[in-house]
Amino acid sequence: MSHFDDRDVVLKGTYLSGKQIDLIVTGGIASIECPRLVRELRRFGAQVRVVMTDAATKFVSPLVFEWASKNSVVTDLTGSAEHITSADAVVIAPCSLDFLTKVSLGLADSAAATLVQSALGRKPVIIATSMHSSLEQNPIFQQNKKTLQKIPGVFLLEPLSAEGKVKMQSIEEMAERICHVAGAKSKVRGRSIALSLGPTRSKIDDVRYISNFSTGSLGLAIANEFFRRGAVVHAIAGPVQVSLPKTLSVYSVTTNAEMKSEFQEVIRKEKPVAAIFAAAVLDFEIQKRLKGKSSSKDSLSVSLKPTSKLINEIKVKGLLRVGFKLESDVTVDELWKSARSSFKSNKCDLLVANRLEDVRSDSHEAYLFSNGKSDPILMVGREAIARELADAIESKI
Q1: What is the DSSP letter of 289?
Q2: What whole-number distance in Å separates Cα of residue 323 and Cα of residue 281?
Q3: Using CA atoms, how far apart are residues 259 and 243, in angstroms rounded to an integer?
Q4: Going by fewer Cβ within 10 Å, which terminus of the chain is more open, N or C?
Q5: Are 334 and 327 in contact (CB under 8 A)?
Q6: Other residues' Cβ atoms within 10 Å of the Cβ of residue 165
Q7: Do 114 and 228 fall into the same domain?
Q8: Are residue 276 and residue 366 in the same domain, yes or no?
Q9: 282 and 352 inside one domain
Q10: Is 30 within a domain?
């Protein structure tokens, strides 16, 4: 029976595999959240060393961070020169007004402050501020932020405003941003990805519309996967039922025409290396929209007309294209046959195919088709679909 260490974590991914992260924890009530950040970074494969200011130790015991990181915690300058960082990135969370001021002025009066000075200009430094809003609005603080933002490799995470305070982003979102900045080598790092997701709508009158049941969950999983790999993700999103994070560049649309227009504009401006058509674009739209609100006392009939496929409207030489095919009440063999036909007619480089009966809120099965492969890859779960698709795209660019 294998030994279970209470400090171990279950891996979510390998985006930070082999990476060393130095986490600077400064004084502030938000420091009580940071043991969770340590654990989350470890779930992505990172080795984390925690460096605490004296003020931080008054909020959280160093023993807590030693447990969370499985590493000794640095609190003082010693002859071991722990302050000369060899980490792949330095994260300051939470970063107080006092500590940011010291960093911007080049002060090195503690192990934590000296370590940051050792990193500036040669390592990524990711800063998550947290303080009362009156402190955040201080003009000297704002000037010090601008000073740091001019230094290459410094990233100030946009805080959240609530209850008269500016707070750190969620632990999950901060971890994703750290993956984005400091993650393992990837062919999509720093490159643009265009992705459509969610449903579209066609208006019957001014208050009613037709649509479909797409939530955008799979598209979001794919977008997050590429962001964690360092890509700049441009998400052309219909009216989704999921919350889209600020990590993505989101272009909100409603109709087929709007989605086509935004997709074409993203391709023109951003020059993505891949276009992923994950949206459930309507196959039919209203022939003639009615004005105002149709009376509920009268019967109502509408005529539908077929729409063109979005993937066929986007034709750019050299752009890697990923299509999606959904069928229902078919066997797996029939799905494969339909997918291969769609693969060819839509001139895809990759295609994700699934059956409606295999798509549920808590589960998702799909097959990945690729050029030169006779049998597709079975993928189980949205995260697995996103990971396999991203791997396949990286192999082709």
Answers
A1: P
A2: 12
A3: 19
A4: N
A5: yes
A6: 17
A7: no
A8: yes
A9: yes
A10: yes
d(CA 321, CA 277): 8
89 CA to centre of own chain: 19
| Both tokens assigned to 350 | 């990759």
Which segments of 189-309 does DSSP mark as H helices, in order?
A: 217-228, 256-270
Other beta carbons less than 10 A from residue 71's beta carbon: 14
Question: Are 199 and 316 contained in the same domain?
Answer: yes
In a domain, 94, yes or no: yes
Q: Is 257 exposed, middle or buried (0-12, 13-18, 19+ CB in 10 A)?
A: middle
CB atoms within 10 A of CB 184: 19
Q: How far apart are CA 160 and CA 9, in angstroms?
A: 28
Residues 208 and 348 both lie in one domain = yes
Tell me, yes or no, whether 137 and 236 share the same domain: no
Domain holding 33, by residue range, is 20-182
320 CB-side CA count, 13 A: 21
Instruction: Report how many domains make up the chain.
Output: 2
Tell me the two tokens of residue 243: 């919350």
Residue ending a domain, choose from 182, 211, 229: 182
> What is the spatial distance between Cα 51 and Cα 274, in angstroms, rounded to a whole number?
40
* Per-residue DSSP letter, 199: B
**Nearest-angstrom CA–CA distance, 245 and 53:** 31
Q: What is the rounded distance in angstroms from the CA atom of residue 226 to the CA atom of residue 192?
A: 9
Does residue 286 sit within a domain?
yes
How many separate helices (H) and strands (E) can be counted in the chain? 13, 21
CA 196, CA 241: separation in Å to the nearest integer? Answer: 14
Cβ proximity of 386 and 225 under 8 Å:
yes
Question: Domain check: are 231 and 378 in the same one?
Answer: yes
Q: What's the CATH number where 282 sits?
A: 3.40.50.10300
With contact defined as beta carbons under 8 Å apart, do 37 and 12 qualify? no
